[in-house]
């Protein structure tokens, strides 16, 4: 692959702004598990190898099971995720693919059954944040370390 820019070096202020958003999200009352699931699932959908590698390692360090990580791409078909997690995963998919169908009412309503308005805002910010990081990674051809 041809060498591309590293956003951290090319535009440190933008990179710091993204880190500030991540710092905010870490202080919300969204569980670490939900934040990890959002990061992994969005990275899978966007095919960001660097982010998948990074966030699956982090999730394991936070106590997530390999079985759930391995089955995250088939969450619709497995019994390993709670109703709350399923609602968040559906929202993650809808927001990640927002251009194709928006966020359907049934997806939003499922999330609203489990979360406050403030938490829904934080969920959408978390999904948007990882989607931006994925675009940084893919746009600059960032690859996982060996």
From TrEMBL:
Coiled coil: none annotated. It holds the Pfam family CMD. InterPro entries: AhpD-like, AhpD_core, CMD-like. Residues 12-93 form the Carboxymuconolactone decarboxylase-like domain. GO terms for molecular function: peroxiredoxin activity. Transmembrane segments: none annotated. This is Carboxymuconolactone decarboxylase family protein. It comes from Larkinella rosea.
């Amino acid at each position: 692959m041809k060498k591309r820019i590293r956003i951290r070096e090319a535009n440190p202020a933008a990179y710091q702004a993204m880190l500030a958003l991540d710092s905010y999200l870490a202080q919300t009352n969204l569980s670490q598990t939900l934040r990890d699931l959002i990061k992994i699932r969005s990275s899978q959908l966007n095919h960001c190898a660097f982010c998948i590698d990074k966030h699956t390692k982090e999730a394991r360090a936070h106590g997530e099971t390999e079985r759930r990580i391995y089955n995250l791409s088939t969450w619709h078909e497995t019994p390993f995720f709670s109703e709350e997690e399923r609602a968040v995963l559906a929202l993650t998919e809808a927001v990640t693919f927002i251009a194709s169908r928006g966020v359907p009412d049934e997806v939003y309503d499922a999330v609203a059954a489990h979360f406050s308005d403030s938490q829904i805002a934080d969920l959408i910010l978390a999904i948007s944040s990882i989607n931006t990081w994925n675009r940084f990674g893919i746009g600059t051809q960032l690859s996982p370390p060996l």
